[in-house]
Design goal:
The complex is a heterodimer of chains A (422) and B (331).
Chain A (H helix, E strand, L loop, with lengths): L1 H20 L9 E8 L6 H18 L22 E8 L4 H13 L5 E4 L3 H14 L3 E3 L15 E3 L4 H19 L5 E7 L2 H16 L3 E8 L7 H10 L3 E5 L2 H13 L6 E4 L7 H7 L7 E4 L5 H4 L1 H14 L5 H20 L4 H9 L3 E2 L9 E2 L13 E6 L2 E6 L19
Parallel strand pairs in A: 1-2, 1-3, 3-4, 4-5, 6-7, 6-8, 8-9, 9-10
Antiparallel strand pairs in A: 10-13, 11-12, 13-14
Helix pairs in contact in A: 2-11, 2-12, 3-4, 5-6, 8-9, 12-13
Chain B lengths: L1 H24 L3 H26 L8 H18 L3 H23 L5 H19 L10 E2 L17 H23 L1 H11 L1 H6 L4 H27 L1 E2 L1 H4 L2 H14 L6 H20 L6 H16 L3 H23 L1
Antiparallel strand pairs in B: 1-2
The chains are: A alpha/beta (422), B mainly alpha (331).
Chain lengths: 422, 331
């Protein structure tokens, strides 16, 4: 028994010794260390690697390693810090909230980062940002959409992307804009959402906003996610005859519903989808021409590059460095690092408190960004007030931006033609 | 008897003393956090070992108890302002009750079928909680940051309180496990594991003692879940009810050595170390190297030491005297 216990003691000591070996690397004085936490392994690794590439591009532009359009927020560099260089230290959260918190702690205490960026998954952002809050280090979130994150009254949390509630609010703004532009009435709504948390939350918010803005909910259907047939649901929708169907579906249900609409000859004036299944690359591959004229919300679309030479230029740089175009996620990660770099430069210091103050005073305009936003300006809870989603429409097998009208690249096709007239 | 027990007691006290002093030597918060993760894993492994090791009923659904603990203490704290110290006990009681209700039908299933049933129950609960409005579904629950202190079990930047709380919890769990191991119940458990038919023939009620085992095991697992909620201050089904949590808990005990008192502690030390180091060293490259190394280590242990690291140590101890004897003969 003695040897057995001795074994345990030796084992424990070995583990402890390993803990001691863990040491931070030596660092240069004039670098600004920023921690970046993304899912670099696990189910979302492919997204994480794109986010990482986008963050690195923003850092390279700030560090003047690449020539970039002068107007771009990141292109200002760090003149107030004598041209100090940004160094991004990456942490991998594997899609696990506890790992996210562990990485945040390691980056802050061992790597001595002055600010954190992350973490894509809303639940990982929740735990990682509470670590930053405890240590008093700014946490900039560029890409998590759960509305609750900015309802926590955190002092050190800032979010550049619009959240889920804002996206739904955008739908109603879009409908009102359409009414004005086309001189039509789009006041009757059919709400058609799947029944997991996302669909249920969306339904609740849509009902509330419809009431406030005097829209009439003609039919409200919450269908089981992964449904295998939708005939009765679509018949109910058809009977209610709404002008607009607002739909939240994942890929399988999105495809199934479109097939059922065609089968039953149901075509409302407008089909307005809530991202997800309708924006999946498989959606148009499967449906082909039957996917035409559908509207959906997005955060970014590639046609933005055609509209704006600045976006085109930055997208080319991204393509050159990492072989892929920007998408909604990577464009937001790029913007996150750029916004943080801008704040650090204005702070003229790497003290967390100075950076926090500078973030609070952020005021970037639309022309400085690669996202179709009005700008970046944080409210008291750290939410960017000037962010917005865009509405895309499938036209000729492509998703093209049609709203907000000032960033649109194509004219809206409205109303949706009947199935037998296509 | 005392001559045999004395060095064991001394060893145990030395180990405890070492654990008590360790965070005073290692002051870097990230490393202290790493030690806390090991203790958290160890506590869960020891708790799992009571049902999975001693009683031999492999559960792959322990996340359900972990989640019940985390949700119970968090809800009680958010809605009723109850201190998590009491919430932790409440979570343990709720989890125990749930485990008995779940075990009643499931213990009619043998071997692999029991393991499959536990996976199913855990999945069902995860789906239910994800769709529950009262529990905020997939959005998750956040504990308020402002309320710090011992009563609220929330500490701003110091890691020491968390370290000592989880160390205390681990010691209590190990003591409970030790008491069971030495008592007649422990013998019943092992009889149920090795020869269920013979045990029944001798009058041991299989169902009753399996229920005792899972009730105790789930009680401590739930306390571990409450601790997680207090430490990370945010819970959602994806973090406390996920299948990965169940697998990790079982893996810690299996890797260290099932049915041994401190095997799970050793297992946690090894597993968490591999996990953290491989991620810190290779994770940020985004190439998945850390996952490959992690998997390789587990496969190696499974192939070369199916009885866990504890089994390996026993084997070494058996061989060393014989090696010594051989050397003497040659000399």
């Amino acid at each position: 028994m003695k040897a057995w216990l001795r074994g345990t003691v030796v084992g424990a000591a070995a583990v402890a010794a390993l803990g001691l070996v863990w040491s931070g690397p030596a660092r240069a004085q004039d670098e600004i260390r920023i921690g970046v936490i993304y899912p670099l392994t696990g189910a979302a690794a492919s997204t994480g690697v794109e986010l990482k590439a986008a963050a690195e591009l923003a850092a390279a532009i700030t560090n003047r390693e690449l020539p970039a359009p002068d107007k771009l927020a990141a292109a200002v560099g760090m003149p107030n810090l004598k041209g100090a260089k940004i160094k991004l230290i990456f942490g991998d959260h594997q899609g696990n909230p506890q790992v996210g918190a562990t990485e945040a702690e390691r980056l802050i205490t061992s790597e001595k980062v002055v600010a954190l960026v992350g973490a894509y998954f809303s639940n990982v952002t929740a735990t990682a940002s509470q670590v930053a809050e405890r240590y008093g280090v700014p946490f900039l979130n560029a890409d998590s959409s759960s509305a609750t994150l900015t309802q926590r009254n955190f002092k050190w949390f800032f979010r550049t992307t619009p959240h889920d509630d804002l996206f739904v609010t955008n739908f109603f703004a879009f409908l009102q804009d359409m009414e004005k532009k086309k001189g039509v009435q789009l006041r009757t709504l059919g709400l058609f959402n799947e029944n997991t948390l996302w669909g249920n939350e969306t339904t609740k918010l849509e009902v509330k906003l419809a009431e406030e803005q005097k829209f009439k909910v003609a039919e409200k259907i919450v269908y089981p996610a992964k449904a295998t047939q939708m005939t009765s649901e679509v018949q109910r929708l058809k009977a209610a005859n709404p002008a607009v169907v607002m739909q939240s579906s994942y890929l399988g249900d999105a495809i199934l519903s479109m097939k059922t609409y065609k089968e039953l000859g149901f075509s409302p004036q407008m089909l307005l989808a809530n991202d997800a299944g309708f924006n999946d690359s498989e959606f148009l591959k499967t449906l082909g021409k039957d996917g035409e004229y559908v509207f959906s919300r997005e955060v970014w679309a590639l046609d933005q590059a055609e509209r704006n030479p600045l976006i085109k230029r930055v997208n080319e740089m991204m393509k050159e460095r990492s072989g892929v175009n920007f998408n909604g996620n990577s464009a937001r990660a790029f913007t996150g690092v750029a916004v943080l770099a801008d704040a650090i430069n204005r702070a003229g210091s790497t003290k967390p408190e100075d950076i926090r103050k500078a973030l609070q005073e952020t005021s970037l305009s639309a022309e400085q960004l690669i996202l179709p936003w009005k700008g970046v300006k944080f409210d008291a809870q750290g939410q960017n007030e000037l962010g917005q989603g865009i509405i895309v429409q499938v036209q000729g097998g492509q998703y093209v931006t049609v709203w907000p009208f000032d960033v649109a690249t194509k004219e809206v096709v409205f109303p949706m033609p009947a199935w037998d007239k296509r | 008897m005392t001559t045999i027990h004395l060095p064991k007691t001394v060893g145990a006290l030395a180990l405890l003393g070492f654990a008590l002093l360790l965070p005073l030597v290692i002051q870097d918060p990230a490393r202290q956090n790493f030690l806390i993760l090991i203790l958290m894993g160890a506590q869960l492994g020891v708790a799992w070992n009571i049902i999975g090791g001693y009683a031999g009923q492999v559960s792959l659904g322990h996340a359900v108890f972990y989640g019940i603990g985390a949700y119970t203490s968090t809800m009680l704290s958010l809605k009723l302002g109850l201190s998590p110290w009491l919430g932790m006990l409440a979570g343990g009681v709720v989890a125990s009750a749930f485990s008995v209700a779940m075990g009643w039908p499931c213990f009619r299933l043998k071997g692999h079928y029991f393991a499959m049933a536990t996976i199913a129950v855990a999945e069902i609960v995860q789906v239910l909680v994800t769709n529950s409005e009262t529990l905020e579904g997939a959005v998750g629950l956040s504990l308020p940051m402002g309320n710090t202190g011992v009563a609220a079990m929330v500490f701003s930047t110091s890691k020491l309180p968390y370290y000592y709380i989880i160390l205390g919890l681990l010691v209590v769990t190990v003591l409970a496990s030790w008491a069971i191991e030495r008592s007649h119940i422990g013998y019943y458990f092992r009889a149920i594991k090795d020869e269920p038919e013979a045990a029944r023939a001798l009058g041991v009620s299989l169902t009753r003692y399996k229920l005792v085992a899972i009730a105790v095991s789930s009680f401590f697992t739930a306390m571990g879940g409450s601790f997680y909620a207090q430490k990370e201050m945010f819970i959602d089904p994806g973090s406390v009810l996920a299948t990965g949590v169940s697998i990790k808990i079982a893996l810690i005990a299996i890797l260290g050595g099932v049915g041994t008192l401190l095997g799970p502690v050793l297992g946690a030390g090894i597993l968490i170390t591999i996990e953290e180091y491989s991620r810190v060293l290779f994770g940020s490259t985004g190439s998945g190297t850390d996952m490959i190394i992690y998997a390789l280590m587990i496969i190696l242990v499974a192939v070369y030491s199916p009885a866990g690291v504890m089994g390996l140590l026993h084997e070494l101890r058996r061989r060393i005297p014989s090696l010594r004897a051989k050397a003497e003969v040659r000399a």
